[in-house]
Design brief:
Radius of gyration: 24 Å
Low-confidence stretches: none
Mean pLDDT: 84
Number of strands: 7
Oligomer: single chain
Number of helices: 7
Largest sheet: 7 strands, mixed
Helix content: 40-55%
Structural class: alpha/beta
């Protein structure tokens, strides 16, 4: 036996204190690691990973009105985080525009979320006008959506199915129209309302 173990066993009071402390830490750990109630019901928790519900957000449009991700339930949604200073964002934005124009009647929505916390509204507006883009743009002025989706690089794209579950996460770019079409085609083919 080691000297530390002998010391503990020699004093029964220390042994019980040690045992109860370990038990208390175990109870605290079990409580902290418990399954949240919504997960126990079978519904996946909002998380920025494939297979989990897409975290909801409400952001302002360029015209000042607000839109929430929940507004698009029943549609396939591409959420693309971008900034005007991002070269790959500039390169992939025309493909997103073309995809949105070609597939919106089938139930596709593209939400181009400008990481305005790292950009500015005038720069974003000039970017959109310079590329002649008309797809829906949301402004993440305080970084809430960017943080909720754990965006660490721009562009980052989330493909969300009609039930609001993230199908895939694509970090970096520029993404081609073919890659994006491959991601959304099986989701568009699923039965579901298109609002």
């Amino acid at each position: 036996m080691t000297q530390a173990m002998s010391w503990l066993l020699s004093d029964l009071r220390r042994w019980w204190t040690f045992s109860l402390s370990v038990l208390a830490l175990g109870v605290i750990w079990a409580w902290a690691a418990r399954v949240p109630e919504s997960a126990a019901s079978g519904a996946p928790l909002p998380s920025p990973r494939a297979g989990f519900l897409a975290p909801d957000f409400t952001l302002e449009n360029l015209d000042g009105s607000s839109a929430s991700l929940a507004d698009y339930r029943g549609r396939v949604v591409i959420i693309n985080f971008w900034a005007s200073w991002c070269g790959p964002c500039r390169a992939e934005m025309p493909a997103l525009q073309a995809l949105w124009e070609a597939q919106r009647e089938r139930g596709l929505t593209v939400l181009a979320v400008n990481s305005t916390v790292q950009d500015s509204t005038p720069a974003a507006t000039a970017f959109l006008q310079g590329l002649n883009l008309s797809l829906p743009v949301l402004l993440d002025r305080d970084g809430v959506a960017t943080n909720r989706y754990l965006v660490r690089a721009l562009p980052t794209t989330f493909v969300v199915d009609r039930r609001g579950v993230i199908h895939s996460v694509l970090i970096g770019g520029p993404l081609s129209a073919a890659v994006m079409q491959t991601q959304i085609e099986p989701l568009l083919a699923e039965n579901g309302s298109t609002d």
